[in-house]
Amino acid sequence: MRREMDDFYDTSTDCSRTKIFVTPDEVAQAFSHYSYQYSGHKILICDLQGVYDDQLRLFRLTDPVIHYYSPHKPDKKKVYGRTDRGRKGMDDFFESHVCNALCHVVTRGFKNARESKRPKVTITIDD
Asked: What are the GO MF terms of this UniProt record (predicted)?
């Protein structure tokens, strides 16, 4: 089954419309990667579980793990609960993470869709 998501913007293409195909797992991986980049490398949201809502065209995610680390506040531990492993949790995530096509789209520019002047990208999710 394929699903399309139209609300992602790509900063690396010059064409007016680009289509990339990703799995739900790749969407979750890219979101985790994006959370790390967007937060200035201070937060990583990972261990994402949930379902895709066909009618609303969105993911319903539950029970995320959030890792927090700031080099300016290295003594801050478990800011987001007992599963927050800080820098170690981030390192473990990126040790196994393999960037996918969506990672390259969402980690460039860090602008929300309204601010972006970039071409629209259609994301198709394969189950």
From this structure: ATP binding; protein serine/threonine kinase activity
